[in-house]
Design brief:
Blueprint: E1 4-5, E2 11-12, H1 14-19, H2 26-40, E3 51-52, H3 55-60, E4 65-69, H4 93-108, H5 115-119, E5 129-133, H6 151-160, H7 162-172, E6 176-180, H8 183-189, E7 199-200, E8 203-208, H9 217-233
Parallel strand pairs: 4-5, 4-6, 6-8
Antiparallel strand pairs: 1-2, 3-5, 7-8
Helix pairs in contact: 2-7, 4-9, 6-8
């Protein structure tokens, strides 16, 4: 936690510093947030630089879609602002992300879509999305003894970094948040999100599985379509 004592013995908290970040200039504010976050957590082995993939493509997208994940590999810790992504450590991760983006954008805007239409898009690159990990302390490697963090570990980061994560989400300002196995942590980041809640203010909240899951494309896509239609039709 950042604690700086001034001449008048006034201690500024992390929340004070976060409140000073101007929300009107998104890109510079996200950079300031990352710098503050990183400097406030010197114990983090490597800081995950995630967020909007390609700002220009995000700005030009009709629907702002953010994927909320648990953590990333150490060789993929700098995510924000990189060129469009087509492949990575998982054979299905980015393909599913592209299909889920197409499906979500279509349903959000009242356009009918089915699995057969979505699967035609799976090999295209991802760029107009936001990608946020809860655990910014990158410890996951491809070594056998360095596997996924436990649920308790992710929960601890969701709690300890909740103010930073909420600020990051607020600055990104998505229309839709797809929780990739992370919905159970979201209430610690966005307190007004309750169990089975489908919306956070006007933001759609999608409780779905991880992008690297082993279910068939068709199963994933059809289940996602049903979940999105449920959100769209809820009052």
């Amino acid at each position: 936690m950042v604690n700086i004592t001034g001449i008048c013995n006034i201690v500024k908290t992390e929340e004070d510093y976060l409140n000073e970040i101007d929300s009107n200039d998104r890109d510079s504010s996200l950079l300031k947030l990352q710098e503050l976050w990183n400097s406030s957590r010197p114990e983090y082995k490597k800081f995950c630089e995630d967020g909007i993939l390609v700002e220009e493509d995000w700005d030009n997208s009709k629907t702002k879609i953010m994927f909320l994940l648990k953590e990333t590999f150490d060789d993929f810790s700098k995510i924000k602002g990189i060129h469009p992504i087509k492949s990575g450590n998982s054979k299905t991760f980015w393909k599913k992300m592209k299909m889920w983006t197409i499906i979500t954008d279509s349903i959000y805007n009242g356009v009918e879509i089915n699995h057969n239409q979505a699967i035609k898009e799976k090999d295209k690159k991802n760029s107009a999305i936001a990608y946020v990990n809860i655990k910014k302390n990158v410890t996951k490697t491809k070594e056998v003894n360095k596997t996924n963090s436990s649920d308790r570990d992710i929960l601890n980061y969701a709690i300890s970094d909740s103010l930073f994560l909420k600020k990051q989400i607020d600055l990104i300002s998505p229309n839709v948040i797809i929780c990739c196995g992370t919905f159970k942590y979201l209430k610690n980041i966005l307190p007004s999100v309750k169990e089975n809640r489908l919306k956070y203010n006007d933001v759609w909240i999608v409780n779905f599985r991880h992008l690297s899951n082993r279910k068939a494309y068709k199963t994933d896509n059809e289940e996602l379509i049903q979940k999105l239609l449920e959100i769209k039709n809820c009052t």
